[in-house]
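Quick start: what a row looks like.
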Amino acid sequence: MRLAIGVVLAVWLVFGAAAAGQRGYFGNDRAVNCKSNADTGLTILAGPMNYAGVNPTVHCSAKAPHPSA
């Protein structure tokens, strides 16, 4: 049972990585910021749902909190 869950999880993430690759999320010309990294991660976690029309996106705030001095 544990092996089956592991296989399903691995296949799920492979489908998500394939969808992220098709959307161009792994290219070197993408800006590295909160939104692009979060969108890539969510696309991978969504897995096969990407092919059913799910397009996960994240709206990051313009200002990140800074630690107090």
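That is the whole record. The chain has a mean pLDDT of 87. Helices lie at 2-22, 34-46.
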